[in-house]
Amino acid sequence: MSKNMARYENETFSLDGNEVEFQPGETILQAATRAGHFIPHLCSQPGFHPHGSCRLCIVKINGRPGSSCTLKAAAGQEVESDIEELKHHRRTVLRLLFIEGNHFCPSCEKSGNCLLQATAYQLEMRGPRFEEFYPNRMVDASHPDILLDFNRCILCGLCVQASRDIDGKNIFAIGGHGMNTHLVINSETGKLGDTDMALTDKAAQVCPVGVILPKRVGFAVPIGQRVFDIKPLAEMVGEQPS
Ligand code: SF4
Ligand code: FES
Fold first, then answer.
1. For a pocket test of ligand 2, which of 53, 79, 94 has the largest count of ligand atoms closer than 8 A to its C-beta?
2. Which of 41, 47, 169, 177 has the highest CB neighbour count under 10 A?
3. Does residue 37 register a pLDDT over 80?
4. Taking a C-beta distance cutoff of 8 angstroms, is the pair 150, 134 a contact?
5. CATH class of residue range 3-82
6. Which residue has the higher pLDDT, 184 or 129?
């Protein structure tokens, strides 16, 4: 083993008082996840470049806030995550995500398997607190095998990356600004049915909420047996489904 390897293997930072080892180049979220520590996050998944958009993964590093999915781990950092100040911040971010779209969990095919819903349960978010926007968003059923419900999009960008970088199809993009930011389909008609998207594409499997759904299989798993019925999110560190 080289000298450098030995040095890196021993490098650690502190996360809520626990020593966490990290490898060179790892982010705080990656190192924490590998060590089995839960930091809430929505727009980051293994194998994807961090998008830094959801702000759920904010931690305090030496007293200053920063997103753990984008900031690299460094030796001696004092990182705080499981503190009331950040839980309050994360619940506020979640509430804003819920009111900004149309999330009717009981009628959503992704209920029980949805990372947004599971995170809200995990962080004990109760009630929206803010006025609902009830935006007017469409459903695109033009594809033979895939349904798109834009009402539930949290603009995490994962489908954009998956389609562009893994599937090589570049079917999704995020367009607009501010309140009008929205998911766009790259086809002449703007419809998914006019793309070459397939159910086997990574982009069809990566959505953490209920936007990109396979047709004809909704509600196939009974309540009680869905992913987050079986184990709470915080106990699934490193094994979260998309
Ligand atoms: Fe993220 Fe899903 Fe919206 Fe794509 S459709 S940006 S994966 S929430
Ligand atoms: Fe870090 Fe979304 S997971 S900002």
1. 53
2. 41
3. yes
4. no
5. alpha beta
6. 184
